[in-house]
Amino acid sequence: MSLWRSRRTGYYILLVAVTTVIATFLYNYGMATLENRPQPLYRSLEVVFQTYTTTGYGEDAPWSTPHMNLLMIALQLTGIGLILTGVDVFAVPWLRNALETTAPTTAPDVADHVVICEYTSRGEAFIEELESRDREYVVVEPDEETAMDLHEADHRVVYGDPESTTVLENAGIERATAVVADSADDMNASIVLSARAANPDVRIVTLVEEQRLGEYHRIAGADEVLSPRQLLGESLAHRVPTAVTTAVDEGIEIGNDLELVELSIAEGSELAGRTAGEIRLREAYGVDGIGAWFGGTFESPIPNDRELDTETRLLVAGEPDRIDELRAKATSTVLPFAAQHAIIAGYGESGEAAGDALAETNTRVTVLDTLEMEGVDVVGDARDPTTVREAGIDDASTVIVTLDDDTTAIFATLVARDLNSSATIVVRANNPENVQKLYRAGADYVQSLATVSGRMLASTVFEDEEVLAVDRQIDVVRVPVGRLAGQTVVDATVRTRTGCTVLAVRRDGETITDFDPASFVFDADDEVILAGTDDSVRSFEAQFLA
């Protein structure tokens, strides 16, 4: 609203007018009756304004009576008050508007960058991936307040409608290497059409909420369509202990003779209740212990004095035969061959994908959702204990929570854990900051949708880095050796400096897994396959690639 049209300004002008009229009549009356010096009203009005503006009183001063002097003191204080109020009403807003920064509408000095259309929690994870690689980006954000927040946080941002070809040109799309459309599914299709019109050769990647709508993104011109919810649902299903998968997660094959596996410790197994120092993974089983999750916290290397229990998940790497031997030791001697019962709370894209994955096992699945639809067995709120009991929580071995709201998911996790203390609870977190909160609520495994999306985008957009496991809490990536060239793993102290473990080396199209870290020297054209947390991989990139 214009400063001169605001209600506050009107009130101030009215206050000045009323005060001036009253002061003029009082002064005129005082001069005539108290000082015996009658004068015209316009002369009294002049003196009042001289008082307000502190410019002096001319020939009227001094005054002989105490009443008149008190009146003048009151007028002087009134003038000061009106001046201060005027500064607050006029000067402060004007200065604020003059000094206030505005969100940029162009990005003229950027090239070879990624244009990210709209800022979301998924996009935030991708931006972290970009910044860790020292790669340029521009966020096109239609909300002015969000754009301002991003600008003040030193993100490169352009304020405007990402569906507008002009706005995309202002974001430098003709100089960009890729465009990422991360908005609503229908808007993403419109963004693709605008981006393709602005730059026919740019690589366009979209994220889709509903996988069935991805085909329309391709028709619009998208090069890649990613469905992180679908992948995440399948990933959560793989975390469910069943008679088919026992307690072991699916491994990642790296070359022909190396496998990376997340291994859960089953109750009653030979590993349960023993410390890492007692087990001696390398000496007894010939595998490398990359690290372990203890109650949701990943530790690498594994502390020798930490006791392994059913809440521990080991991350190990080794030859498949060796892994199988360790798998047998981590599995309970009494396997539950009877059909397991799993409850899926939330039947969206992730929940449906989890249900489809479990349908291939001997698991009996009960689906709980607030909406009545095909595939839903119990209609109700996952936060309602009565509804959860109706879904069969008492005999459920697993609860998969794939709700759209993290606050609701946290409460549903608390309810499920209270009603069944022995069930395995796996949860999808929409925002990374809620992961630890879900663990504290009682979840056994939590996967962040934003993190998975960021990894999928990084793997798709960057050809120099391949993310081999986007759906795990550990990154398994293939990157150039960078400044590792001419050094050995031991000489460079990679694990000490970064927390990453070098699993294998790619040289001349072959994967080398059996190498001596103390004597194998990297060539400049080699690639390394690393395993580590997000932070440790970023540390490696910062120290050896940036």
From TrEMBL:
One Pfam family, please name it.
TrkA_C
Q: Which UniProt keywords apply?
A: Ion channel, Ion transport, Membrane, Transmembrane, Transmembrane helix, Transport
Can you cite a GO biological process for this protein?
monoatomic ion transmembrane transport
Q: Which residues form a coiled coil?
A: none
Membrane-traversing stretches: 12-30
- Residue intervals of the RCK C-terminal domain: 248-332, 462-546
Q: Which residues form the RCK N-terminal domain?
A: 111-227, 339-447
Tell me which positions the record assigns to the signal sequence: none
Source organism superkingdom: Archaea
Secreted among the record's keywords? no
Cross-referenced PANTHER family: POTASSIUM CHANNEL PROTEIN 2-RELATED-RELATED (PTHR43833), POTASSIUM CHANNEL PROTEIN YUGO-RELATED (PTHR43833:SF9)
Its name, as the record gives it, is Potassium channel family protein
Q: State the organism of origin.
A: Haloarchaeobius amylolyticus
